[in-house]
User: Which sequence fits this backbone?
């Protein structure tokens, strides 16, 4: 079936997303091939993922995130900031409000400098090793400490993402280096199955790992990804993290109409 799909394109620190306003239900969501084709950089619009705004009970907007492979994913931090800007433009958010994602409700704060802060749930520490952490920040992340970032992120990331421990559900793999109380980060993302310019939930995971390992002792941490700079702030007391916020840029890039076929 031929279709015309209106969309907007956003990016946050180089992580780019297709935005669909599907409150009227016209977009045929949960179609893996369609969404993957839209995200394809050669044959479609091109994006790291697609985010759908859907109607929900109550007044809180709800986002559904799909990876570039067309499968529904978990929380996307950079996507959440872009989604917040998207729904603000639609008149659904004020200066400070909230939206619903796969892991529940998240508060949003629009800062005077144009950046956007997203509140995170308390991270779950799954594993703490000598050279790595496994942390769930709304999405699962493997944070590996490295001496430099001149490495093949695609090859090294795939080795971890597809090993026996993580192959079934997948995991995002972050290579992190601390210098001058700042984290420098490169990330291999599941679903995209390649390196991306930034990963918001990975930035939060790296900041939490750096604090727990004693590499950084501050509760506001600057993280430099390939696509831009983000900040993570939190409170830590009684072995618990609260008030976890991710702050960074989001930008509307362009809008258009996608011409494609549904799977039916």
Assistant:
């Amino acid at each position: 079936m031929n279709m015309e799909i209106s969309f907007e394109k956003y990016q946050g620190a180089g992580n780019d997303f297709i935005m669909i306003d599907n409150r009227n239900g016209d977009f045929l969501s949960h179609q893996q091939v369609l969404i993957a084709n839209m995200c394809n950089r050669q044959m479609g619009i091109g994006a790291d993922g697609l985010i759908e705004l859907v109607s929900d009970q109550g007044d809180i907007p709800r986002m559904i995130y799909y990876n570039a492979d067309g499968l529904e994913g978990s929380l996307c931090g950079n996507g959440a900031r872009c989604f917040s800007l998207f729904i603000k433009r639609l008149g659904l958010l004020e200066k400070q409000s909230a939206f619903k994602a796969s892991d529940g409700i998240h508060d949003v704060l629009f800062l005077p400098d144009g950046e956007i802060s997203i509140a995170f749930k308390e991270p779950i520490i799954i594993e703490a090793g000598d050279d790595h952490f496994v942390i769930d920040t709304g999405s699962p992340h493997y944070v590996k400490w490295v001496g430099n970032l001149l490495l093949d992120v695609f090859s090294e990331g795939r080795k971890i993402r597809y090993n026996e421990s993580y192959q079934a559900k997948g995991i995002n793999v972050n290579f992190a280096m601390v210098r001058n109380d700042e984290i420098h980060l490169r990330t291999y993302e599941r679903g995209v199955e390649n390196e991306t310019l930034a990963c918001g939930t990975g930035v939060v995971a790296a900041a939490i790992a750096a604090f727990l390992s004693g590499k950084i002792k501050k509760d506001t941490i600057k993280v430099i990804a390939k696509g831009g700079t983000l900040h993570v702030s939190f409170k830590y007391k009684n072995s618990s993290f609260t008030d976890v916020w991710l702050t960074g840029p989001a930008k509307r890039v362009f809008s258009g109409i996608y011409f494609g076929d549904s799977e039916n």
In short: The two ends are 7 Å apart (CA to CA). The domain at 120-248 is CATH 3.10.310.10 (Diaminopimelate Epimerase; Chain A, domain 1). The mean pLDDT is 95. The helical segments are 32-39, 77-89, 153-161, 200-212.
